[in-house]
Sequence to fold (134 residues):
Amino acid sequence: MAPAAITSLQEFKKIIDGPKPVVIDFWAPWCGPCKMIGPVFKKLSEKSEFAGVDFYTVDADEQPDIMDELQISSMPTFVAFQGGNKIGTSLGAIPKNLLELIDKAANAAAATESPSPAPAETQSEAPVAVSATV
Fold:
């Protein structure tokens, strides 16, 4: 799914506090590197292997309160969150670093989705011998 725009600090806090990992692109319309990496971010958001991650964008000019909250001053900056905790950050228009961040978020998603294995059952009784007569 294509990245959705975050339009308020309240919405931002609700999104990052959720159980599902999210990766957010902090960008600005006047930022040349943002324009270069934006399509890469969108394309990665549509890959099936990242279905467990939600993707969002924050326009720095329209959401200065979010930028202040995270103390982001350079763009593009990509930040991954899960359950209110920062998973990681990628600075600049470097596709390799962005992919590594998204992989990290996808691994966090997989870790929360897969249930822990059940403990091995223990047998408290001695095995019973079975004999068959023909």
Notes: The beta strands are 4-5, 22-27, 54-59, 77-82, 85-91. Residues 116-131 have pLDDT under 50 and may be disordered. DSSP finds four helices and five strands in the chain. Residues 4-112 form a domain with the Glutaredoxin fold (CATH 3.40.30.10).
